[in-house]
Amino acid sequence: MSTQVAIGLNAVIVAVTEEMPRILTVWREGAAGEPAEEALPFGPLEPETDRTLDRGLRRWVREQTGLDLGYVEQLYTFGDRNRYPGESRGGPREVSVAYLALVREVSVGRGASWRDGYEFFPWEDWRSGRPAIIEGMIAPALRAWIAAAPDTAGRLERRERVEIVFGLSGAPWDGERVLERYELLYEAYLVPEAWRDREATGGAADERRPVPPRRPELLPGRVMALDHRRILATALGRLRGKLKYRPVVFELLPPSFTLLQIQRVVEALAGVRLHKQNFRRLVENAGLVEGTGLQDAQTGGRPAELFVFRREVLRERPAPGVGLPGVRRG
After folding, report:
1. What is the per-residue DSSP string for 134-147?
2. pLDDT one-digit tens code per residue, 161-197
3. C or N terminus of the chain, fewer CB within 10 Å?
4. 47: helix, coil or strand?
5. Which among 161, 183, 206 is the end of a domain?
6. Helix count and strand count (H, E) for the chain
7. What pLDDT is recorded for position 327?
8. Are 41 and 92 found together in one domain?
């Protein structure tokens, strides 16, 4: 077992365009004979030249995508054993410090692409009602996984997790449990990464989860390199939570905007529809915005008033988020 540790940096870069969360991705070269894989922007920390982790991250993103980041916050540190396949073959243990960045979508350099966020997690978008994939594929597959538990206690434990995490059997859907849902699907071998990691590590990634007796039908969704879809799930769950107590949504909007534009960005990130009047009442009563006296004539209908973010609210309130008032359930 290697005692070396390598530090890497990852960036989850999110924009919202045409009512869709957009994720900036790059391509990671595979090992000898293996195809390239879609990944989050990433790179190793250069201890001699990167004075801070933040600066190292910004440098890697600039080199790989041509994008200069604005708002950035540290997301989480990922360091599980065998998260990089080379570790099981004597390579260093890879620890990655991930960051969340919010931007407006712009053209990026060659080799980088913007992807619709729900291509990675098609079960997370409830704006048109409960996604068909949950009842059509996920629930039956997880019921089979429950039944395959070795004993009664294991079946009860699995059933409780499944119902809580995926909102089944009357349990409510919690939009912030994005990572828990992906982790559960990974544990049940329902996503391609679970089988890929098992093969790449020679089974070293299966220390705590039994392999199913036969390979189940795998769920749709864009696959990412290494554990990058897990990192992305962490970021989406964090972002959904932050909507309630931080004005992060305004990082994704132009300097002036309509109230409907704010609502559509929040809905895109949260994956749910909101009641229009309740949302507007909350945003205005909370002092998050102020009118400009100007009208947006490009709405396709009656001109709508343009607003700007009212920065004074950061001094007035400890948690100036937009929340999710009046969620409309499909």
Report:
1. IIIIIHHHHHHHHH
2. 999 999 999 999 999 999 999 999 999 999 999 998 8
3. N
4. coil
5. 206
6. 10, 11
7. 57
8. yes
Q: What residue numbers bound the domain in which 267 lies?
A: 243-328
Q: What angle do CA 156, 158, 161 make, to 5 degrees?
A: 110
Is 237 a member of any domain? no
Read off the tokens for 200: 């790449």
In a domain, 28, yes or no: yes
Residue appearing with tokens 């709508």 = 304
- Burial of residue 235 (number of CB atoms within 10 Å: 0-12, 13-18, 19+): buried
- In this structure, is residue 219 part of a structural domain? no
Final residue belonging to a domain, choices 118, 147, 178:
118
Residue 215 lies in a domain: no
Q: In CATH, what number is assigned to the domain containing residue 322? A: 1.10.10.10
Kindly indicate the confidence band of residue 31, based on its pLDDT and cuts at 50, 70 and 90. Answer: low
Give this prediction's pTM.
0.92
Phi and psi (nearest 5°) for 46? -100, 95
How many domains does the chain contain in total? 3
How is residue 13 annotated by DSSP?
Answer: E
Q: How far is CA 56 from the centre of its chain?
A: 22
Same domain for 51 and 129, yes or no, is no
Residue 163, CA atoms < 13 Å, CB-side half-sphere = 10
Phi/psi at 86 (5° precision) = -65, -20
Q: Dihedral (C-alpha) 221, 228, 107, 242: value to the nearest 10 degrees?
A: 90
CB 213 within 8 A of CB 148: yes
CA separation for the pair 28, 252 (Å, rounded): 27
